[in-house]
Amino acid sequence: MPGLENLPIRRNTVLLALTLGVNSAVLQLVAAISSLTFVLVTGVKGLLGLGPAIFLSSAGLTAMPAGRLMDRLGRVPVLAFGYTLGCIGCLVTALATHTRSTVAVVVGFVLIGSATGIAQLIRTAAGDMYPPERRARGISYVLVGSVLGAVLGATVYTPLFANRKVAAHALTVPWLVAAGISVVAMLVIVWVRPDPRWIAEQIGALPAAAENAPAENAAPLAEIIRRPGVIPAMLAAFSAQAVMVSVMNLAGYVVVGIHHHPQSDVFPVVSSHVFGMYVLVLVVGALVDRVGRTTSLVAGLFVIGVSTVAMQWFAGVAMTALLLFGLGIGWNISYVAAAAQLADLTRPVERGRLFGLNDLIGAMLGASLALVGGVALESLGVVALAVGAAVLAVAPAAWILAREPTATVADAA
Q1: Residue 318: how many CA atoms within 13 Å on its side-chain side?
Q2: Do 28 and 149 meet the contact criterion of CB atoms below 8 Å apart?
């Protein structure tokens, strides 16, 4: 195994973090106004969750084939293609808001969702470049770039919505800006060289469960899933992801459509959430490596549960922002721990497909929750969304805690 000091890990980590930070500014716009965009373009309030559901379903359906392509072609070409799709999707969505075209908004959301499904696999590249004992920290180094995205999103989008009426045409320029930001992310990612998958092959660390497998072949997906520790990590990951993305994508409608705050108040709330997702990521990464994957999975899910259930008791912008900040922190803990454990248990030629399957399940659950949550918001209010999201987070945590022993550094490596 070559010395790690001879590999461009630090440079690639910085570029991946910068890419993720730039792209997270696009995701903030999606989170803030996807439900509003769909309602204003189509005029159908009863299906306000359908917009986020289209976006999330597309992300999930794209993640698995994208993961397989990453294992075959490398991480960078697939990620660059994803950001290109995102740019096209934002342009089509901007056209939809200008023309009030339902077909265009659906196509735009499908393309943006597909791009997001690919972009989320950037953590595969992060996990490639670090050995198991430092893997959670390595993933956290990349995720910290999204702190930049939280600041960038609030700075760019808040002025665009100030003193504007809630109307479809007012959303055209923000979506055009998001298209430009996607181009920047695509230009940055192509400078990541050599491909992180190649670096993983040079590091050469194998999970114990895969030591007898041929080095050049990936084990069947069913065999990978049966490895000890994979199911708990997947369960925590797609539960945390599903709750987080569904609540985040409905937050804009909660702030504007339920609590009747100005549209410009959406972005401080969403930025607070994104800030919570990443502001403590360096601390979280180090703690996950120190206290263990299982403990971290459970802790993160419980934080998500507390943050979401409390949404029913507060209507103010400040408290909503604080609760979404807590949701972001809980997601971050579970997300980093699950990503590290899944990377521990796979070889480079297996990693993308497992992450893709995990993202598929999480996205489809998120889409279902967004769709059901949208109907529940319209008929029952915020309490239905808050309680349902909390249950979906706490129940898996209780199952993991009951069945899995807590462990320490790189539990499954």
Answers
A1: 0
A2: yes
What percentage of the chain's residues is helix, strand, coil (to nearest 5)?
Answer: 80, 0, 20
Return d(Cα 195, Cα 151) in angstroms, integer. 29
Tokens of 338: 């699950």
**CA angle, 90 then 95 then 101, to 5°:** 115
Amino acid making up residue 261: H
In this model, does residue 146 exceed pLDDT 80? no
Tokens of 198: 């190649």
Task: Return d(Cα 26, Cα 179) in angstroms, integer.
Answer: 8
Positive or negative CA dihedral for 389, 146, 197, 5? negative
Whole-angstrom distance, CA of residue 354 vs CA of residue 19: 22
Residue bearing the bigger pLDDT, 183 or 149:
183
- Alpha helix (H) ranges present in 218-316? 221-225, 230-253, 266-278, 281-291, 293-309
How far apart, in Å, are the Cα atoms of 16 and each of 72, 111, 130, 289, 310? 20, 22, 14, 21, 34
How far apart are alpha carbons 35 and 249 in whole angstroms? 7
Integer-rounded Cα Rg, in Å, for the chain is 20
pLDDT of residue 13: 92
pLDDT digits (tens, 9 = 90+) for 376-404: 666 666 777 778 788 888 888 888 888 76
Residue 366 CB-density burial (10 A; 0-12 exposed, 13-18 middle, 19+ buried): buried
Tens-digit pLDDT profile for residues 62-119:
988 998 899 888 999 999 999 999 999 999 999 999 999 999 999 999 999 999 889 8
- Closest by CA to 89, choosing from 67, 116, 120, 119, is 116
Nearest to 30 by CA among 45, 52, 53, 49: 52
Cα 325 from Cα 275, distance rounded (Å):
7
Domains annotated for the chain, with CATH where assigned, are 4-403 (1.20.1250.20)
Q: By the 8 A CB rule, do 396 and 329 touch?
A: no
Q: Which residues contact 140 (CB under 8 A, 6 or more apart)?
A: 281, 282, 284, 285, 286, 288, 336
Helical pair 230-253 and 50-73, crossing angle rounded to 10 deg: 140
